[in-house]
Amino acid sequence: xKNLPDSTTQMVCGFCGTGCxxxxxxxxxxxxxxxxxxEYPVNLGMACPxxxxxLSVLQSPNRAISPLVKKSPNHWEPVDWDTALSxxxxxxxxxxxxxxxxxxxxxxxxxxxxxxxxxxGALAKFGMGMKHGDxxxxxxxxxxxxxxxxxxxxxxxxxxxxxxxxSDVLVFVGANPCIAHPIMWxxxxxxxxxxxxxxxxxxxxxxxxxxxxxxxxxxxxxxPLFYGIAxxxxxxxxxxxxxxxEHTEGFQEFADYVTxxxxxxxxxxxGLSQAMxxxxxxLIKSGKRVSFWWTMGVNQSYQGVRTAQALINLALxxxxxxxxxxxxxxxxxxxNAMGSRLFSNTTNLLGGHDFLNAEHRDKVARVLxxxxxQIPDQNSWPYHKIIEGILAGKIKGLWVICTNPAHSWxxxxxxxxxxxxxxxxxxxxxxHDTETAxxxxLIxxxxxxxxxEGTFINAERRIGRxxxxxxxxxxxxxxxxxxxxxxxxxxxxxMFSNWKSPEDVFQLMKQLSKGQPCDFSGVEDYxxxxxxxxxxxxxxxxxTQPPAPQRRLFEDGIYPHENGRARFIFSExxxxxxxxxxxxxxxLLTGRGTASQWHTQTRTRNSDVLRKLYPERIYVEIxxxxxxxxxxxxxDWIMIESQRGHLKARAFITQxxxxxxxxxxxxxxxxxxxxxxVFDPHSSQPSYKCCAVKVSTx
Length: 698
Ligand code: SF4
Hints:
By secondary structure, the chain is of the alpha/beta class. Helix content is 31%, strand content 18%.
């Protein structure tokens, strides 16, 4: 009885973008265990292993419990907050005085609550005068964001999770929801319409294995495939001409362009048979409610934006959007990628506004009661330009909040080299042992999910609550409190005098969203979010009805572009930047390997349960044909080498990968020593998914 809970509260999970709701069972106000919420519209009583272990990862000896100052290589000493923040201010101000305000930059995250993202963005850019800051969402969602903005006029994923249960044809591209979004996958399994499930992926993933059609294409041939499918559908008249005419523009140019994709070309570029390609087109043609879903296999590509838009084009031309069970649907990765997309003040000005638009700057200044001149009239450098800026000596100070570039950045070797070149590196994180923290001059201990208040926005645009159900350890503070203190030490505390609590910032965010496609000014307060089971945007204050439990966009066929029309956008596919060669004959694929680990494992490696559910040592998937050719046995340690680095991994011999291809999960520290730093030209998102490598057994 001593260990039984005495009350329960509810909040959304802090790992992935699904946004499941969890019951947190409390004893004397402290969370002691978790169970999934049954009546919440997202997860319907389910959670994946990470959700079940959400509280465990907070109790780790690796938690940062006091500010730490580097005294010598590999030696940090604890200090109090006053010493830490005096040093923070002195160092960063000193750098700015000597090298200009933009010589200090920040890198943030899709993991903090939205209120903290807004605070960080406003503090760094309006208070501290920084010009450059970006988030780790550049690594996962930037291509989808750009695709939506160009095609629809705003970053607007149109779907609601109900669509997974209402489609009769579901197309998953570069997505493995079976393990990456397992609760969404459960909805597919519950779909009562016996749907056709089509997976487009070079690897035979868990999702592909459960699909009715797996199109195991040659890596990065998805764009010509979709152009070829568009050609077939147009030729067969399997398009929705009324929808195209009333709600879109640019279709005729697109139709003319895809005549360059006859079957022979698509067969040659994708490696698929004619029968497979025709079956894919037939299934789209015969479907009444076809939905297209994509994740990192599309976004993390040198042509991610155009590939996402090729899927948007298919949805538009067949009228599969704005109706139940349809849509061109990008699924987010991180718990608050959507909050970051709208409120991190990096690529967008707060609230999905535009730094380059004078009216937008005026509006934001008005809402925040600050002079418009405080708001930069230019966009920030994207992530890779910030890295290059450090390399070029233009950025001398870096503040890294809740992300781990020394593990996750595509050009890992370069990042590790340049972090050492900085005059001052601050890492603000829950854990003191991240790969990035090892380079830090100052570590600021942050509270984690479950130790602070705020909101997340999930993949279907649902705003959900995060609550404080645990005391943060030692001197760790919420990121919100750290930002508030920094504002005071920096001398811009007055600007944030009304930002007393996360809910104060939520009220400001509501005003910032007003009139935007993401308008949620009708959400009264945190209590309303609790009572409604989360609320999807848009929910403007002009709504007279309570928010619907599920809500999709574009049911009226009106898009955020000025003329209300969606655009067909396309261009010639690019060549693979690093194709296999005699010296590097394999293509390396990377991605999520399990439902039990999260990204760089910063948190999940701190759960005994989650660690046991996943191989601790790095492995590489290799096809039996290739293993035989090199006399590789199961579990042999083999060397994988690219032009940039090498690693040793255990051989997992499997038909999951095609001959000539390898797969290594992204969760291991070594993986990004191999990847090639190339970027989508429109979104600046890194192309993690294919580079050339060789295999040896010594
Ligand atoms: Fe949390 Fe995502 Fe797992 Fe749901 S699916 S419990 S949101 S990690």
